[in-house]
C-alpha cells in the first residue's frame, strides 16, 4: 500500500490565513442589518417591559425649615403671661424665618378626651398649614425659648449632631423597660426626637421631621382607642405605649439628653435649666396661686427678652 | 438471652439477630466492622449482605480499582473513534464490498437544498423557520416561563401569592377527607396558576398558634406571614393574599393584564361608590391635609398600597393585595395593638378584618393609601354567600362574565365546602377547554347524538 506524495508546499506562504469556513463570518456589509436587528429586538423588549413607572412621594422643599407649634389652653388668654409667650414664639420664629402655629385647645374637637391630646392634632394641623416645612417643634404653652441663636435644624436635628447626642441602647421608658432605643441609628433616619424626664417620656417638647412618617405617627398616636383607654397620663402614656409596642416608631426615634430641648425650671421633675439651653419649661405649674405659671416664669421672662433684644 | 420485647426492624432491611448482637441498634455500619468481620459477634443481615458483595469485611488489598488507567480504561476505550463498520454481524452480509454509506454533512445537505430553491421559496422557508423557532422557544422550552417571570420583561417575580392553608388546624380539630381534598385542590389550582405566569407561591400554615403565653392570637398570623413573605421574596412588589377556599377560575388571566397594568381604571378609592359599612367619607376636620380630605387621596396609582374588595358586610380579606412599601410596614406593625385588642376583642368577630375597618375609619394616613376593587374582579362569591338579598351582580359569580376568582367564603358554616369547590373546579375546566376538546364535545358529540341518539364521551 502506498500513498500519493503530499502536495509540495508553496515556498511563499499566503500573507493571510485562509478563511476557515464559509459560515459564521460577518462581512462589513452585513454589519448594518445585524445592528438594526439587534436594535429592533432591544426596542421590542423595552416596549413590552413598559419600564419602571414609580415615582416617590412629593418632595418637601424645606420652607420654612421649622414650624414652632404651641397649643394654648385658652384659660387666661389675655394675661400678660400668655401674651409674652406668644411674643416669645413669634420673635424666635421671625428671627430664623420659621413658621408658627399658635392655636387654642378649643379649636379642635377631641370628642371628650382630655385637652392635652390637642397637641397631637395641632401637629397634624401644622403639617397641613406648612406642607413644605422640614421640621416641626412642639413646645408646651408653659415654656420660653431662651436662646435665640440656636436653630432647631442644626442644633437638634443636624445629622452629625444628633448622632453625637442621642442616647443609644437605653430603656425607652426608664428605668426598667426592656425596650431600648436603637444602638445603630443614623442621624438622617431619625424622624422623632424626644426626651425623658424623671417620670418617663416627656411630651412637653419634641421635634418631628415632616413627611409621611409624621402623618402616620401622629394619626396613630391620636387613635380613638388610645384616647378612650384612660391612660393615666393621657397622651404621654399613649406615647410610651406606641413607642414600646411598634418597631416602626421605635426605629425612627432618638432620645436626646433632656436639656437639649426640654430643660425644666426646677429640678423636681427633671433636669434644671442652665444658661444657654434653647428653652425652659415650667412643668406642673398651676393656673393660679403661689406656684402659678406666671410666677414661676417671672425669673425667665426678663432673661429671654434681654437675650432676644441683643440678638 | 431473653428480651423484654421483640427487636424492631433495622433500617438496612432484614432483622437483627438479637442474641448475637448485644452492642447497640442492630445496624452496624460497614466502615466500623470492616476489619473485625464476624469476630466481634455482630452477625447481621446487613453485614452478611455487604460481605457477600465484597464491599467490606476484609482489609482491602485488591488489584481492582487501583490507579488511573484501570479505573478509566473502559471509558477511554469506549470514546475512541471506531472504524468497525463491518463489526456488527448482521450488516456484514450487506456490506460485502466494504463500501461506506455516503455521509454528507447536515449543513452541506441544507446548503444544497437551499441552492435548489428559488428566491421566493427561500424567503417563505425562512419565515416558516422563524415561526417554528419562535414556537419552539416559547411554548416548548421554559423560556416562556422565564420571560414571564423576569421583572423587566413579564414581571411575574413581582407578585407573590400567599395561600393560607391548614386553617384552624393543629389543636382545634382534625382534618377529615373532605378538608384534605379541598386543600389539595386549592393548592394545585394556585400552583398551576403561579407556574403559568411565573409568580411566586407561598403556602402558609395557619394552624392556630400562640404568640404570647397568655393569648391566642387567632387569625392575626396574616400579618406575620405577609411580613415573612416580603422578606423571603426580595423582588416581590405585590403580595396577593388568598384564603384556602378560593379557586382561580380563569388561569389565563394574568394579574398584570387583569388589574395592575391599568390600576387606576379598575380600583375605586372613594368608598362611597360601594359602602356597605356606611363609613363617612371623606374625613372632615380642618386640621387635615388636602390628601386626607380628598375622597381619592392624591389620585395617583403610585400611592395605593393596599387593595381590597368589599362584600355585602364590609371589607373582605379573603383576597387582597398589599404592596411592598414603608406604608405597608407601618400598617402591618400597627394592625395588631394590645390596647385596641384589649378593648375590642369581644366585638371584633372577624379580628384583623374588623381591626382594619377600625383603622380605616379613624386614621387618615390609612385612608389615603387604600383602594378598593370591585368584588368580582378578584373575589366573586358563590350564591350561598351574602345571599340575604338574593343575587347581586356586584357580588356573585357569573360564568358568562368569566369571573377571575371565586371565594367560597363562609362555606364552613353550614354549607358544603367540598361540593362547592368540586363544582367550581369542574366548571373552570369546562369553561377553559381547548379548541380540540370543544370541537369534540360541542360538535362531534352533538352530531353523533343527533344521528344515533346516544350520548358519547369523547
Automatic annotation (TrEMBL), chain A:
GO molecular-function terms, A-Z: alpha-1,6-mannosyltransferase activity
One GO cellular component, as annotated: mannan polymerase complex
Top-rank taxon: Eukaryota
InterPro entries noted in UniProt: Glyco_trans_34, Nucleotide-diphossugar_trans
A matching Pfam family: Glyco_transf_34
Alphabetic keyword roster: Glycosyltransferase, Transferase
Membrane-spanning segments: none
GO BP: any one term: protein N-linked glycosylation
Sequence similarity: Belongs to the glycosyltransferase 34 family.
Protein name: Uu.00g072230.m01.CDS01
Biological source species: Anthostomella pinea
From TrEMBL, chain B:
Transmembrane intervals: 121-140
Alphabetic keyword roster: Glycosyltransferase, Membrane, Transferase, Transmembrane, Transmembrane helix
Superkingdom of origin organism: Eukaryota
InterPro entries assigned to the protein according to its UniProt record, in alphabetical order: Glyco_trans_34, Nucleotide-diphossugar_trans
GO biological process terms on file: protein N-linked glycosylation
Presence of keyword Transmembrane helix: yes
Single GO term (MF): glycosyltransferase activity
GO cellular component, one term: Golgi membrane
Assigned protein family: Belongs to the glycosyltransferase 34 family.
Protein's name according to its UniProt entry: Uu.00g045200.m01.CDS01
Species, as recorded: Anthostomella pinea
Amino acid at each position: 500500500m502506498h500513498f500519493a506524495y503530499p502536495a509540495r508546499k508553496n515556498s511563499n506562504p499566503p500573507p493571510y490565513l485562509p478563511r476557515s469556513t464559509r459560515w459564521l463570518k460577518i462581512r462589513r456589509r452585513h454589519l448594518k442589518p445585524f445592528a438594526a436587528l439587534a436594535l429592533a429586538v432591544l426596542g421590542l423588549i423595552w416596549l413590552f417591559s413598559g419600564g419602571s413607572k414609580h415615582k416617590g412621594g412629593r418632595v418637601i422643599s424645606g420652607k420654612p425649615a421649622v414650624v414652632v407649634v404651641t397649643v394654648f389652653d385658652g384659660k387666661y388668654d389675655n394675661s400678660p403671661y400668655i401674651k409674652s409667650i406668644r411674643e416669645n414664639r413669634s420673635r424666635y420664629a421671625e428671627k430664623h424665618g420659621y413658621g408658627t402655629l399658635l392655636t387654642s385647645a378649643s379649636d379642635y374637637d377631641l370628642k371628650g378626651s382630655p385637652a392635652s391630646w390637642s397637641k397631637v392634632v395641632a401637629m397634624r394641623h401644622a403639617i397641613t398649614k406648612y406642607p413644605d416645612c422640614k421640621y416641626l417643634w412642639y413646645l408646651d404653652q408653659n415654656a420660653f425659648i431662651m436662646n435665640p441663636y440656636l436653630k432647631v435644624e442644626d442644633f437638634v436635628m443636624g445629622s452629625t449632631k444628633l448622632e453625637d447626642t442621642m442616647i443609644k441602647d437605653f430603656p425607652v421608658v426608664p428605668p426598667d423597660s426592656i425596650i431600648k432605643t436603637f444602638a445603630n441609628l443614623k442621624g438622617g433616619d431619625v424622624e422623632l426626637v424626644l426626651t425623658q424626664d424623671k417620670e418617663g417620656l416627656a411630651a412637653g417638647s419634641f421635634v418631628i421631621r415632616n413627611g409621611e412618617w409624621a402623618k402616620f405617627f401622629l394619626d396613630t398616636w391620636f387613635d380613638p382607642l388610645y384616647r378612650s383607654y384612660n391612660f393615666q397620663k393621657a397622651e404621654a402614656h399613649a406615647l410610651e405605649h406606641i413607642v414600646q409596642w411598634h418597631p416602626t416608631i421605635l426605629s425612627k426615634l432618638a432620645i436626646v439628653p433632656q436639656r437639649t430641648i426640654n430643660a425644666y425650671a426646677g429640678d423636681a421633675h427633671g433636669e434644671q435649666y442652665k444658661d444657654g439651653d434653647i428653652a425652659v419649661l415650667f412643668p406642673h405649674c398651676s393656673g393660679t396661686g403661689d406656684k402659678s405659671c406666671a410666677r414661676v416664669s417671672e425669673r425667665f421672662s426678663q432673661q429671654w427678652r434681654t437675650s432676644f433684644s441683643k440678638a | 438471652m431473653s428480651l423484654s420485647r421483640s427487636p424492631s426492624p433495622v433500617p438496612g432491611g432484614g432483622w437483627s439477630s438479637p442474641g448475637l448482637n448485644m452492642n447497640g441498634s442492630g445496624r452496624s455500619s460497614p466502615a466500623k466492622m470492616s476489619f473485625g468481620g464476624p469476630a466481634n459477634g455482630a452477625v447481621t443481615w446487613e453485614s452478611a449482605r455487604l460481605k457477600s458483595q465484597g464491599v467490606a469485611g476484609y482489609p482491602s488489598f485488591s488489584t481492582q480499582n487501583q490507579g488511573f488507567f484501570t479505573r478509566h480504561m473502559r471509558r477511554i476505550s469506549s470514546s475512541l473513534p471506531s472504524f468497525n463498520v463491518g463489526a456488527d454481524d448482521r450488516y456484514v452480509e450487506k456490506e460485502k464490498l466494504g463500501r461506506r454509506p455516503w455521509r454528507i454533512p447536515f449543513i452541506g445537505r441544507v446548503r444544497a437544498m437551499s441552492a435548489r430553491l428559488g428566491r421566493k421559496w427561500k424567503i417563505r422557508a425562512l419565515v416558516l423557520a422563524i415561526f417554528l423557532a419562535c414556537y419552539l422557544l416559547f411554548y416548548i422550552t421554559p423560556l416562556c416561563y422565564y420571560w414571564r417571570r423576569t421583572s423587566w420583561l413579564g414581571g411575574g417575580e413581582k407578585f407573590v401569592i400567599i395561600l393560607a392553608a391548614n386553617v384552624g388546624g393543629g389543636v382545634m380539630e382534625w382534618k377529615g377527607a373532605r378538608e384534605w381534598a379541598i386543600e389539595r385542590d386549592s393548592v394545585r389550582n394556585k400552583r398551576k396558576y403561579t407556574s403559568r405566569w411565573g409568580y411566586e407561591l407561598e403556602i402558609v400554615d395557619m394552624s392556630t398558634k400562640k404568640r404570647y403565653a397568655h393569648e391566642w392570637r387567632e387569625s392575626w398570623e396574616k400579618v406575620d406571614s405577609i411580613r415573612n413573605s416580603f422578606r423571603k421574596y426580595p423582588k416581590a412588589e405585590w403580595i396577593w393574599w388568598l384564603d384556602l377556599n378560593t379557586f382561580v377560575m380563569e388561569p389565563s388571566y394574568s394579574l398584570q393584564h387583569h388589574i395592575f397594568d391599568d390600576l387606576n381604571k379598575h380600583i375605586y378609592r372613594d368608598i362611597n361608590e360601594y359602602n356597605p359599612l356606611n363609613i363617612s367619607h371623606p374625613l372632615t376636620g380642618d386640621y387635615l391635609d388636602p390628601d386626607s380630605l380628598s375622597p381619592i387621596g392624591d389620585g395617583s396609582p403610585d400611592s395605593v398600597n393596599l387593595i381590597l374588595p368589599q362584600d355585602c358586610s364590609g371589607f373582605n380579606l379573603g383576597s387582597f393585595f398589599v404592596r411592598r412599601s414603608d406604608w405597608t410596614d407601618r400598617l402591618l406593625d400597627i394592625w395588631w395593638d394590645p390596647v385596641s385588642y384589649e378593648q375590642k376583642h369581644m366585638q371584633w368577630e372577624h379580628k384583623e378584618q374588623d381591626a382594619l375597618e377600625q383603622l380605616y375609619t379613624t386614621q387618615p394616613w390609612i385612608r389615603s393609601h387604600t383602594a378598593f376593587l370591585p368584588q368580582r374582579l378578584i373575589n366573586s362569591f358563590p350564591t350561598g354567600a351574602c345571599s340575604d338579598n338574593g343575587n347581586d351582580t356586584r357580588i356573585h359569580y357569573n360564568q358568562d362574565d368569566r369571573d377571575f376568582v371565586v371565594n367560597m367564603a363562609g362555606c364552613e358554616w353550614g354549607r358544603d365546602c367540598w361540593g362547592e369547590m368540586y363544582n367550581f373546579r369542574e366548571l373552570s375546566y369546562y369553561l377553559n377547554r381547548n379548541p380540540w376538546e370543544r370541537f369534540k364535545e360541542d360538535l362531534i358529540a352533538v352530531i353523533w347524538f343527533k344521528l344515533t341518539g346516544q350520548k358519547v364521551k369523547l
